[in-house]
Write the structure tokens for this entry.
Amino acid sequence: MTLKNISLLNYKNFEAQTFEFDPNINCFTGHNGVGKTNALDAIYHLSFGKSYFNPITSQNIRHGEEFFVVEGQYDKKERSEKIVVSAKKGQKKIIKRNGKAYDRFSDHIGFLPLVIISPADRDLIVEGSDTRRKFIDGVISQGNSSYLKDIISYGKILVQRNSLLKYFAVNHTWNKDTLEVYDLQLSELGERIHNSRKEFLNEFTPIFLEKYAAISSGTETVGLDYKSQLSEGAMDALLKENVTKDKMSQYTSVGVHKDDLIFNIDGHPIKKFGSQGQQKSFLVALKLAQFEFIKNLHNVNPILLLDDIFDKLDEERVAHIIKLVDDENFGQLFISDTHADRTEAVVKKVSQSYKFFKL
């Protein structure tokens, strides 16, 4: 799968811009603030219908304008695909495939598989469990539409249950039967989500360990540990055990919405004990594992975006990553960097064709 070209209209700092891409490696270079990351984000937008860096749609519209349009032309399995994402202030965003609008955005997820590696990924280490759950859900959802539907349904029912708990508290009332209706739905969805996450990590973790060994010195031992309350008991039982606590807090205290993914290095949390270089290598390995997992699911090479890849990594390690990409036939690659000479020196070492865009 390759992205042949992209057209941007009023997208972030771009007024009107078109890029024609190389089928292998494409490099955006220029000073900070010229739009390198925005160009990569526009490509991400075509795959996911939203920005990787700012999910608030209106804030992706160029200052002083009322709308934006991002249009991309792809070749996928010998077929041409045209994707358009557009948004106007005060109106619902629209995603079209070959001129036909999607009824549900979730139906588009996974159609154009993509992986991004960015300095913003550090949030996976330093932020709360919600960020790591979104990572797990994002990877699984690109290859499993049923899982995505379960996640969306679970979120809606969780909001309804929490609203009911607040209603009971405000009105000094209690209805066990009404609450149990939500408990039943949450339990069924929660168990399915929990099982899917376990199955995913059983398959994903060995790939991750292999990638980390390939891009690091190999002297550290890293690990991923899935932490879930459902490992201690069935969700319906957990909800019953914690009903008094939930009644007092007006919040659902147990369930897969509390799951976490623990990142370890040499048996300790990488957040506290990993150097910046080790943390960056950990995140790059995580994303390269994501790439291989999705590639195996779809039998197609996802697009790979490397945003400011030299951040906290030396040139030798970056060259090793690019070589890894070259050896394993990753498909189409997009890179952003502030130094054109540095980037060109690295990409010249691989056998693929490449194109530069100086912004």
Observations:
- The longest helix spans residues 176-215.
- The chain has a mean pLDDT of 91.
- DSSP finds eleven helices and 14 strands in the chain.
